[in-house]
Amino acid sequence: MGAGTGRGGRRMRAAEQWRPTGEPAPARPPGGPGPADAPEAAPGQGLSTDLLDGVRQWLARSGAEPTPARVAQALREQGRVLGDAEVLGAAERLRSELIGSGPLEPLLADPMVTDVLVSGPDQVWVDRGGGLERAAVAFPDAAAVRRLAQRLAAVAGRRLDDARPWVDARLPDGTRLHAVLPPVAVGCTCLSLRVVRPRAFTLGELVAAGTVPPGGDLVLRALIEARLSFLVSGGTGTGKTTLLSALLGLVGPGERIVLAEDSAELRPDHPHVVHLETRPANQEGAGLVTLEDLVRQALRMRPDRLVVGEVRGGEVVHLLAALNTGH
Prior knowledge:
This protein is α+β, with helices and mostly antiparallel strands. Helix content is 31%, strand content 16%.
């Protein structure tokens, strides 16, 4: 649940809640491939798992990057000679597994995708703004899902192992990562990726997409202009973050917005925004920064608009204090 407050001495009034129905998704070109269409096999996809494992182990022993030349050398060590296209395909596949996001890379690169969920080697789901649909990608086995989850956690500077079987973190590109290892996740590692797009939608675009009903934008604009406090609520994947980002884009350019979030997802189109993000404790149990801490610090940063990305614990006390003081 997102919360925003306006600076001023006005009493907080109950405002009608708008429950967004989803984020606008770009239209698919006529005749384009549907989500269930299986892509053609790329060069390198037909190589056996044992062969690729041998190449992977050779690269690990030698400390070499998976360049085409190194992959060709590793293949020769395995007693295989392949054509240029197959070598390049194998190099790209290994690069995506060792450096990128493996089989999920094309999904994360799709501008229509907002969420990627993995619950098994052949259980990959995506959300393109219209609900979950099965993706035409798969992992070789459950171990490959675990390796990817642990590598992504390491990229985010977090630990994911049997002692700490779950992680919630943000990747360098802003993608939100959540993963749970077995046996907490029964059967296979569960991986959830929330893609944060760099561009925020405008309120006009949300109206055009049907996310905000006709006339609703007038009420929402008046809400922002009157500097009233308000809440944005809704179910998972209904577009709460998208709507709140659009509303913050309506705030006057001379005002200072301070955001306090568990994971930085809000992307308001505004010239003066301060982003604050929580931090988990380190392996020694020190360094924890909670949302409650952020709200307390934000109140000392002269906010014209204080926004709490999610209210679900002790931070509500400080949020209510902010509401009562007009921040």
